[in-house]
Specification:
- The complex is a heterodimer of chains A (522) and B (175).
- Helices cover 42% and strands 17% of the residues of chain A.
- Chain A has 522 residues and is an alpha+beta fold.
- In chain A, strands 1-2-5-4-3 form a five-stranded mixed β-sheet.
- Chain A is globular and about 60 Å long.
- Chain B has a five-stranded parallel β-sheet with strand order 2-1-3-4-5, sandwiched between helices.
- Chain B is α/β, with parallel strands linked by helices and 175 residues long.
- Chain B has a single domain (43-174), classed as Rossmann fold (3-Layer(aba) Sandwich), CATH 3.40.50.12280.
- The chains are: A alpha+beta (522), B alpha/beta (175).
- At the A-B interface, helix 6, helix 9, helix 10 and helix 18 of A face strand 1, helix 2 and helix 3 of B.
């Protein structure tokens, strides 16, 4: 395994014009500094070597004059996360070669005003220019940002004759978060869809700056309510990585149980929502019965229907007693039996299958181009489960059977999610039988080192999320950067409605991916 | 049905009665009794708008339509357009990008109309009061008048139901 990564590093060094730093290994991550000119080439060679583009972050470097840009790649075959970084005043955009990085680079460009040479789309992605007048503290914007916000946001169609626009959102017909969809259609056929997000942008990353690492869990839980455990675990892992902290094994087991419980109740909403959106109310009600029971079980176990407040740095904040564990085990067993029956009813309905089969196709090429993650990618057969390739915590002792499908339509996503629920139930069962009995005591917490950076990866119900934490001089957070699965997958929906999907199928396509708006906008 | 699918339970709709352990359910029971006594008590059409919450308030609102809670039996139903709505249920904090959308949604509603602020963010701005990209302090009442506050992180489905029923009371006073 190590030889493969060494070959890649040598390749990167050989192709570079400027100096390339020696790789520094820490945990599962390899950090390499390149010169700004060589960064793009290094990124492309990492993707060619089988890496998957994960995320890109930017932060101020030594005062305000320069910026540090980091590009993360999941090298799945090698079991390493490769972090290529550089510092400069302006950068060369990677997105022309790696299209998945487009939104990341737009965000980096907007955050700092730094130039990304060759960036195809320079429109701001977080603050809408027409709403800038409501923003507090506008004086902190630099000239490049002011110029960026002064331009109007233009959404253009394909230019085909007879094309007209259908505007959907930000306020939708259902009980759902806000986002704007601009359809360019001829009749029922969709020519182009453009998504405009960021109605939910509330400054989570910025609010975390200057705070204590222990104190921002309530903020992390606001990223996305039904992913609060996964996001908290990813954040805690980033801090544990930078502080070299160990987590007691019982705490790791409890984390696994909470993560899988969250996956079950999140995925139940998706499959229930798919049934609802094709008009199959009876099956949808059954899924909702199981889900409501599941959330009541959550409340009984942890006091929160969303399992909030359970994760802390270095472990979990509350232990689960043996009675609670047996309650989980019994509850999950019952829910899975019920799920199997509802699944039988759903899959034996010809109207259901007719609506979801070949609807909202995502193709393998799109999945590779846009670096999709989670069930959306797995429904096309792209294996990308972080639990499997970069096992963390209790997953090191549990092999995860990844649910895969081939077609990439709504049906495949439905099947993948059902299979994932079953797999989660199996993992919970196994972990409860396996976990150490003695309750854990928190070790004296390590001091948080200053000027250190850490990354944390975790597989949430919607796909993998990545957290980057940089501490300042005083050990407080200097920069928190978040890339959720929804941020990566939103662009898949722009492609999924093309082809033989009509505009009326959009709700079910949207529901089958069930992306979080809040998790994208932060 | 039971013969073919023996494990499927009949939907267990929760009982709402004045002797319940939960204070929220007791309060709902009292309000419903009052409503059922009044002649021509109308049902309540609710339009929801998310102005910047994490999606948990929406999840809980969807769960009010679950067979266990079943908000339709209280005369509450969710409508697709603000033009059909009596009650606007807003979750927050109100971001700068949603400020205009919230104003326009409120303006589109016919009179009489009532706003319910759901969740800590909508009631007080919550954690986001100091955020640059949140409008003023993030309260919904900074943008539109609020009649009922439902705090919680997020409020439970029954707390939301109670909030909507209280809004119905406020509505009948306006009529």
């Amino acid at each position: 395994m190590d030889s493969k990564i060494n070959t890649l590093i040598q390749e990167i060094a050989k192709a570079s014009v400027g100096a390339v730093s020696k790789p520094s290994y820490k945990g599962d991550a390899v950090w390499i500094e390149t010169s700004p000119e060589d960064l793009k080439g290094a990124c492309v060679s990492s993707v060619n070597a089988g890496g998957k583009f994960d995320s890109a972050f930017i932060l101020p470097y030594q005062g305000r004059s320069e910026f540090k840009a980091l590009y993360l790649f999941r090298m799945q075959g090698m079991g390493k996360v490769l972090i290529l970084w550089t510092h400069a005043k302006s950068f060369i955009a990677v997105s022309p070669s790696i299209p998945g990085a487009l939104w990341d680079e737009r965000k980096m460009h907007e955050l700092t005003g730094a130039v990304f040479e060759g960036l195809e789309d320079e429109r701001p992605i977080m603050i809408h220019s027409e709403n800038l007048k409501f923003m507090k503290d506008r004086g902190s914007l630099n000239n490049a940002q002011k110029e960026m916000y002064s331009r109007p946001y233009v959404i253009s169609g394909t230019g085909e004759e007879g094309e007209f626009q259908v505007l959907v959102g930000p306020v939708h017909a259902g009980i759902i978060e806000p986002g704007h969809f601009r359809f360019h259609v001829i009749g029922e056929k969709v020519n182009k869809l453009e998504v405009r997000m960021s109605y939910m942008h509330k400054g989570i990353e910025e609010l975390a700056e200057g705070k204590d690492v222990e104190s921002i869990f309530p903020l992390i839980e606001q990223i996305s309510g039904d992913e609060s455990v996964a996001n908290s675990v990813a954040y805690a892992q980033a801090v544990e990585y930078l502080a070299d902290m160990d987590v007691p094994s019982r705490d790791e087991s409890i984390r696994l149980i909470l993560l899988e419980l969250e996956r079950i109740y999140s995925d139940l909403a998706d499959i229930g929502g798919i049934a609802l959106d094709v008009g199959y109310y009876s099956a949808s009600s059954k899924y909702h019965i199981i889900r409501e029971d599941m959330m009541r079980l959550n409340e009984k176990l942890t006091g929160s229907r969303f399992l909030k407040g359970m994760i802390s740095i270095g472990g979990v904040s509350t232990d689960l007693s043996e009675e609670k564990l047996s309650e989980i085990s019994n509850g999950v067993k019952l829910f899975i039996q019920e799920l199997r029956e509802v699944e039988d009813i759903t899959m034996s309905s010809s109207t259901f299958i007719d609506r979801v089969f070949t609807t909202g196709m995502v193709f393998p090429k799109t999945a590779a181009n846009l670096s999709l993650v989670g069930p959306v990618a797995r429904a096309v057969g792209v294996s990308c489960d972080v639990r499997k390739y970069f096992p963390y915590g209790a997953y090191k002792a549990n092999r995860v059977n990844e649910a895969l499908a081939k077609n990439g339509d709504v049906m495949s996503r439905f099947m993948v999610k059902v299979d994932e629920i079953k797999e989660s139930a199996r993992l919970i069962e196994r972990e409860i039988a396996r976990m150490p009995k003695q309750s854990t005591r928190r070790k004296a917490s390590n001091t948080i080192p200053s000027n250190e950076s850490g990354i944390g990866l975790c597989e949430a119900a919607r796909g993998s999320c990545t957290f980057f934490v940089q501490t300042g001089k005083d050990g407080k957070i200097a920069r928190l950067a978040v890339r959720t699965a929804s941020f990566r997958n939103w662009r898949a929906i722009e492609k999924a409605v093309l082809g033989n999907t009509i505009i009326a199928d959009f709700p079910v396509v949207n529901k089958s991916m069930n992306l979080s708006y809040s998790g994208t906008d932060l | 049905m039971k013969r073919f699918f023996p494990l499927l339970r009949h939907p267990k709709t929760d009982k709402i009665y004045s002797g319940s352990e939960s204070p929220v359910i007791r309060e709902i029971a009292a309000l419903l009794k009052k409503r059922s006594m009044s002649p021509l008590a109308r049902s309540i059409s609710v339009r929801m708008i998310d102005c910047g919450s994490s999606n948990d308030v929406e999840v809980e609102e969807v769960m009010t339509t679950s067979p266990q809670v079943d908000c339709d039996r209280f005369g509450i139903h969710y409508v697709a357009s603000p033009r059909h709505a009596d009650v606007l249920l807003a979750s927050g904090p109100v971001t700068i990008n949603m400020k205009l959308a919230l104003e326009r949604t409120y303006d589109a509603m016919p009179d009489p109309k009532v706003v319910v602020a759901a969740g800590d963010g909508a009631v007080s701005g919550g954690l986001f009061g100091k955020s640059k990209v949140v409008y003023k302090s993030g309260k919904v009442s900074d943008v539109v008048p609020v009649a009922v506050n439902v705090p919680g992180n997020p409020p439970t489905p029954y707390e939301l139901v109670l909030g909507i029923l209280k809004a119905g009371e406020a509505l009948s006073k306006k009529r």
